[in-house]
Design brief:
385 residues; Butyryl-CoA Dehydrogenase, subunit A, domain 2; binds flavin-adenine dinucleotide; 4-stranded mixed beta sheet; alpha+beta; 10 strands; Butyryl-Coa Dehydrogenase, subunit A, domain 1; 12 helices; single chain; 3 domains; 4-stranded antiparallel beta sheet; Butyryl-CoA Dehydrogenase, subunit A, domain 3
Length: 385
């Protein structure tokens, strides 16, 4: 793996988390998937080593580090346990970033130190039966009633719902059309009228505790309003950094793992009296996979570095997410092919790698929606090559 001009501290962070993930997370990775069991104890290990809230300012107990460090950490965790990486990037991602970016000082003081210490796990919830790519169609409603909001509605596909204590929930606050009427509330798990509903089991990432959320006259204090209606663009801008650290490094780490495993397999397995790796046709496939992985890594590190330099770009985020997502599907699919029937067996990790990356082209904005965003920036002249 190349170092991309990483500082000594960044390399130390990367190598430390890699060691932890390999030793502590990899042994349970297959079971977390098979049993649909979120590996929450791994988050305690990460918190114990100071990896939660790394990007949080020191005033709130964090280390004040950048997006690059976040990306390096998530990539290495995903290389050894994708479910741990998803849980980590979820609890340590959208909600704390949103609190930091648009929360009141009182909300920050109330929640951020507990998020940094790893005591409080969080999830964020936008999706609904009729609101997926179309965020402006959120129908879960929050209505002011005295000093509280009453929330009614339901949510889908909430990653980490089963293990989280605090939820960032997008709600419709007034009748303004589309996104203009949407805002965000902070909902604690034990709030009366709020239920973490049915477990939702998708093709992959089965150990992320995904569930639906149900709100039935759920009464939330006014002080938990995170974002009033009319300011969704601010929240989406804050979450743009999370689109870089929360999704592509998971795909990159998994693709790297699939690649490493299959390289070893081709060296070890003999057919027609020689190692599979001696066939030039297969060597070229490995070379193409390496090209794909390194191109994705370069895009991802570039996007993170630009954010850390104070030059974030929506188009960088979308190009990165779309490319890394699709690279990971190509690479994990090819790894299954190269491993033959072993590639499809549950006894080996290849089929899990493929299943785990497949949904990442859908979560956090589909590849199609990101393509539309890239095209919009190009055609408007805002994107400079
Ligand atoms: C692994 C995973 C984790 C997730 N975690 C969370 C979470 O924690 N919280 C949360 O709120 N949600 C989560 N989601 C849900 C995710 O945000 C939505 O699935 C996503 O926004 C797409 O919405 P949809 O599934 O309703 O698809 P739709 O919006 O119905 O789209 C269906 C298809 O149509 C395409 N499409 C839609 N509109 C357009 C258009 N205008 N132009 C071109 N193509 C279009 C899409 O690209 C897609 O291929 C998760 C999803 C996955 C797979």
């Amino acid at each position: 793996m190349k170092d991309f001009g990483l500082t000594e501290e960044q390399r130390l962070i990367r190598d430390t988390v890699k060691g932890l993930a390999k030793e502590h997370f990899y042994p349970g990775a297959a079971a977390a998937d098979r049993q649909c069991k979120p590996p929450v104890d791994n988050l305690k290990v990460l918190a114990g080593h100071g990896f939660t809230g790394m990007f949080m300012p020191e005033d709130y107990g964090g280390a004040g580090l950048g997006l690059m460090e976040n990306v390096l950490v998530v990539e290495q965790i995903a290389r050894y346990c994708a479910n741990t990486a998803m849980l980590f990037s979820c609890t340590d991602g959208a909600t704390p970033r949103a609190l930091l970016g648009v929360g009141t000082e009182e909300q920050k003081q109330r929640y951020l130190p507990r998020l940094v210490s790893g005591e409080l796990l969080t999830a964020w919830s936008m999706s609904e039966p009729n609101a997926g790519s179309d965020v402006g169609n959120v129908q879960t409603r929050a209505v002011l009633d005295g000093d509280d909001y009453l929330i009614n509605g339901s949510k889908l596909w909430c990653t980490a719902a089963q293990v989280s204590e605090l939820f960032l929930v997008l709600v419709r606050l007034d009748s303004s059309p589309g996104m203009k009427g949407v805002g965000a509330m902070l909902v604690e798990r034990d709030t009366p009228g709020f239920t973490v509903g049915k477990h939702l089991d998708l093709l992959g990432l089965r150990g992320t505790g995904m569930a639906e959320l149900v709100f039935e006259n759920c009464r939330v204090p006014k002080a938990n309003l995170l974002l009033p209606a009319g300011r969704m663009r601010e929240l989406l801008a804050v979450l743009d950094a999370d689109r870089i650290s929360g999704n592509p490094p998971v795909c990159l780490g998994i693709a790297q793992a699939a690649f490493e495993n299959v390289v070893q397999h081709l060296k070890d397995r003999h057919q027609f009296g020689k190692p599979l790796a001696d066939n030039q046709g297969l060597q070229w496939k490995l070379a193409d996979m390496a090209i794909d992985i390194e191109a994705a890594r370069a895009l991802l590190y570039r996007a993170a570095a630009r954010v850390d330099e104070g030059k974030p770009s929506i188009v960088d985020t979308s190009i990165t997410k779309a490319y890394v997502n699709q690279m990971s599907v190509r690479v994990t699919n090819e790894a299954m092919q190269l491993a033959g029937a072993y590639g499809l067996s549950e006894e080996y990790p290849y089929e899990r790698y493929f299943r785990d990356v497949r949904g990442m082209s859908i979560g956090y904005g589909t590849v199609e929606i990101h393509r539309s965003s890239i095209a919009r920036e190009i055609l408007s002249g805002r994107y400079e090559f």
